[in-house]
Glutamate--tRNA ligase (Halogeometricum pallidum JCM 14848), 571 residues
Amino acid sequence: MDDELRERVERAAEKHALLNAVKYDSDADVGAVMGPLMGENPEFRPHGDEIPGVVGGVVGRVNDLPPEEKRARLEELAPEELAAIEAEDEGDDRTLPDLPNADDYEEVRMRAAPNPNGPWHIGHARMPAVIGTYKEIYDGSFVVRFDDTDPETKRPDLDAYDAILEDIDYLGFEPDEVIRASDRVETYYDHAREVIEMGGAYTCSCSGEAFSELKNDGEPCPHRDKDAETTREEFEAMVDGEYASGEMVLRVKTDIEHKNPALRDWVAFRMIDTPHPREEASDYRCWPMLDFQSGVDDHLTGVTHIIRGIDLQDSAKRQRFLYDYFGWEYPEVVHWGHVQVDAYDVKMSTSTIKAKIDAGELDGWDDPRAPTIKSLRRRGIRGSAIVDAMLELGTSTSDVDLSMTAIYSNNRDIVDDEAARYFLVREGERFAVEGGPEAGHPAIHPDHEDRGDRTVPAADGVVVEPDDVPAEGERVWLKGFGCVRREGDSLVHTDDSIEAVRSGDVDVIHWAPAEDNVSVRMRTMEGDVTGVAEPDFADADADEVVQFERLGFVRVDGQNGDESVVYWAHK
């Protein structure tokens, strides 16, 4: 990378780092900067291996600026973008658009329809966040319907049903009704029989390849004109399990010459030999396809508004054929794009995460490296922090990027006031301490003097992080203890006042006792980190969120005699 290109990268990175920092009122994040930087500047891509290093340096410099200087610098570089951020800050707190035709319904009733093939990844949080909020806005109802009628391809995980409901509760919502589609198979059979009697469905034994060729050519299946009695008999044979998987399907008649081949005579029921994992549904072999099952359930449960991915537009169009047969009114539909989340090396996919757990690459669904709701919860992220970040995405039909910085910023606002402060030193270097008090007494919380001080022993020596070790003869300020000068393997207490810090001559560092300390294992997104904390940390309760000063917030997972375990949350 030549000097000219480096300067261009630095200028662009500075703008995006400032945008990220100002928008979320927090430190900029390299991952959140890289996406828009490379998107706006495709000419940078051939230098992709070098650019993260340049961006990292720029982000570090931006994060060192006070908030008012960040805003002033952004006004110089990108005044229009700053104005847009300020307009958002001053705008209506209600981030979601009005639901279409909501006033036409006595009650707004919406549903989340998860496939319980595993616990939820972060992207799944968007649906309950938005639906739960709409329920509150319109004083409506929120239905959770488990779409579990595929016991083979998307095989349900028996633990996932409760896990998903726990995730919804953690996000702060309570469904008004919970339904399992696998409990309702007889209902789907009854509605299939009605469509057959109307002449709106037929049984088909064509192979998938043969029907696909006919469909794409706009030619009818040879079974399409069979009489309703024959179709009914063959469908009952399907229900009785007399056909093997792939041998017979039931199709809904649409328009075989429809301009969209995907809508031509779609499959409503198919045979599956694999038993359902739920004992209550294990005897069924004839299963509805999602478009049939979901379409029937949306009507019978009174759903008025559906939110679904923009990629599922054909589902609504297929279901409208079914609704026309029954004379039902189709619900209002809002389509949105997918959520993409930065900061993770693991793909946000239930099957991918499950495969990595099975292979031992992840410890479980709550591994800090996994992009899952369970992982965020174990790291000490509050559910409302996730919900607020999801609501800021709105309901755009475009794919949207969710920066973890937004979630972290929201969470910081929630936990900061309550989080006690402690010192944690990683890979510490040991020094004797000469002179000064027996212990340091930093505040439990800098904004709450009434909460008192901690006691951090110093008489038997201290450990400091390698990056904080002063050069020979240089001074540092051990927070809560005082100013010391390095003399060989010792830190000698000086008489300097706090003015040495205020004048910028002396850096403030954290530290821990060399002897009387607590061994800590910190689980992070990059792997485990070990270190020692001050003795008062042993009093922190499990599930408490605390701040390791200068490092960040963590959730205490457990305390024991040999090692305390914490999960990294964020800076």
Observations:
- The chain has a mean pLDDT of 93.
- The first strand starts at residue 109 and ends at 112.
- Residues 3-93 form one domain.
